[in-house]
Design goal:
single chain, Growth Hormone, Chain: A, two-stranded antiparallel sheet, 16 helices
């Protein structure tokens, strides 16, 4: 198989996958960053459940992962990697269209509301949630293709974990620029209380144009399948995918990883807004906003950018750690992330959480590499199963929002992050050891 892989030029496909990973990261984080602004624009009529409703934006996105991961695996078997990517980008266009419709509908029909007890919610908010789910489905299917392809494609002078780290770095570039896109371009750097729904329409049209161009270019690219990474059409596999214990526990580990990653990335701005209103935590900068490149950015968005930027730096560093095993990397980073989160709770300071991104950076690649190790033709199916765990990005941030409402503040809700880090530490030390269940 290695001889055959060396005969194929995978550099072009590798670059294509890296670019698509950037798009996935950008849209995922952009979606989470809508929580704060849309909390003000859409949820002004919601009472004590604002945090819970705001986190539904993230919940609807990541809910797509357990539902659509299997779709990505079956499409990969039926249509190949390229055919699956093209179909997933069509789905992404549909989701962006729903984002546009949500704002257009709310502006055009301002009195179209849904009353839930004392809470008044614009119908357009639920259209936005549907769009969030659809784009989340697209991102799911994209990653079912991207992860195993990066892991298996032969590029001279690289190893599997390094290629995943490069892809993760591109993903982090997208996540780093997304908060600036939302606060600086979509909402023009205005204060949260001044955000208007009509500001959403033009940026979403622009994103649809960009994805259309990407789709047209991809249709002309050569993207060969990689033998030995997926089952053939009609082939019956003799083993149940869940019989691989290290994969099963890896799915649980990725549930907690994505959950705690998104808890911080999506909810740190809500925590920061709360701290600013209560304690003036932004006095470190002498203001509650920051001007970069001539654009005014709200400080909460800057904190989210620091977090995602730390992930970018960590992944760039991780791409050079070819002599450090994934197990050692995961052990070290989970311990450091746990300590920082404990300190953030102790001192009630969101700034400490921004540093956690540096240690979250390599966890995806480490867990994925450990989970699919020695799976062979089960790899593409395992990649779809792996996506089930990403639902943690829906469940844990929503649970944290409920905890924040119940505890009348965000401080103690961060204990949910500590729990997730501790399970990942267990997976690094014990759960990732390869043996089939029952053996």
């Amino acid at each position: 198989m290695m001889v055959q892989e060396k005969q194929v030029n995978y550099v072009g496909p590798f670059i294509t996958m890296v670019f698509l990973f950037l798009i996935v990261g950008f849209l995922t984080t952009a979606n989470t960053q809508f929580q704060g602004p849309l909390k003000e624009a859409f949820l002004a009529g919601v009472g004590d459940l604002k945090n819970t409703f705001a986190t539904l934006i993230t919940f609807s996105w990541f809910l797509a992962y357990p539902i659509c991961g299997g779709v990505g695996s079956s499409w990969t078997t039926k249509y190949g990697y390229k055919g699956t990517l093209i179909r997933s980008l069509f789905i992404m266009l549909i989701g962006l269209g729903f984002f546009f419709i949500s704002s257009w509908f709310t502006v055009t029909f301002p009195n179209a509301n849904i009353n839930l007890d004392a809470n008044i919610i614009p119908f357009g908010f639920f259209i936005f949630l549907l769009g969030s789910f659809i784009i989340g489905a697209s991102a799911t299917i994209l990653q079912v293709v991207i992860n195993p392809y990066l892991s298996a494609c032969y590029v001279k002078g690289t190893q599997s974990i390094q290629r995943l780290a490069v892809g993760g770095s591109a993903n982090s570039i997208g996540t780093t620029i997304a908060p600036f896109f939302v606060t600086g371009i979509v909402f023009g750097g205005v204060a949260m209380e001044e955000v208007q729904v009509r500001q959403l329409m033009n940026p979403f049209i622009g994103l649809m144009v960009i994805i259309t161009l990407v789709l047209l270019v991809l249709m002309r690219f050569s993207l060969p399948d990689i033998e030995g990474t997926k089952a053939e059409v009609g082939e019956k596999l003799e083993k149940n995918i869940w019989s691989f214990r290290h994969l099963t526990l890896g799915v649980i580990a990725i549930f907690f990883y994505v959950g705690v990653e998104v808890c911080i990335g999506a909810n740190i701005n809500l925590y920061a807004i709360e701290q600013e209103s209560l304690y003036g935590v932004f006095s470190l900068f002498g203001n509650d906003s920051l001007t970069l490149f001539g654009i005014n950015f709200a400080m909460p968005a800057f904190m989210a950018t620091l977090y995602w930027g730390g992930m970018l730096i960590g992944r760039l560093v991780g791409s050079s750690l070819n002599k450090v095993s994934p197990r050692v990397q995961l052990t070290f980073t989970t311990i450091c992330a746990t300590i920082l989160t404990v300190l953030a709770i102790t001192f009630n300071n969101p700034w400490l959480l921004t540093a956690v991104g540096l240690f979250h950076s390599i966890m995806w690649g480490a867990i994925y590499t450990l989970s699919i190790h020695q799976l062979g033709k089960y790899t593409s199916i395992a990649s779809g199963v792996f996506m089930i765990g990403v639902v943690g990005g829906a469940v844990l941030p929503l649970l944290q929002g409920v905890m924040a409402d119940a505890m009348d503040g965000w401080r103690w809700s961060w204990t949910i992050v500590i729990a997730g880090e501790l399970f990942m530490l267990y997976y690094a030390l014990l759960g990732s050891k390869i043996r089939q269940r029952g053996n």
